[in-house]
Amino acid sequence: MREGLHPEYGPVVFRDRAADYAFLTRSTLSATTSGKTIEWEDGHTYPVVDVEISDVSHPFYTGTARVLDTAGRVERFERRYGKKG
């Protein structure tokens, strides 16, 4: 890689203020933070980025996939419109 072309990549804490939840990850946003820092659980100080929504505060995120009952749907269709054949 060429020097001076790519942004810095380092550890950053993303904090969801609405849910009082934070997680540590790596990002290029470490250089663009406004100087706010936070002391993390490991005792080190990291730059912090406040976010509006995360998986914890999003009202529609469940973390599980929905299972469709296709057998029940076919039976309901046959009951409603009659079995042809």
UniProtKB/TrEMBL annotation:
The gene is rpmE2. The keyword Transferase does not apply. Keywords: Ribonucleoprotein, Ribosomal protein. GO terms for molecular function: structural constituent of ribosome. GO terms for cellular component: ribonucleoprotein complex; ribosome. InterPro entries: Ribosomal_bL28/bL31-like_sf, Ribosomal_bL31, Ribosomal_bL31_B, Ribosomal_bL31_sf. This is Large ribosomal subunit protein bL31B. It comes from the Bacteria. Signal peptide: none annotated. Pfam families: Ribosomal_L31. Part of the 50S ribosomal subunit. Transmembrane segments: none annotated. Belongs to the bacterial ribosomal protein bL31 family. Type B subfamily. GO terms for biological process: translation.
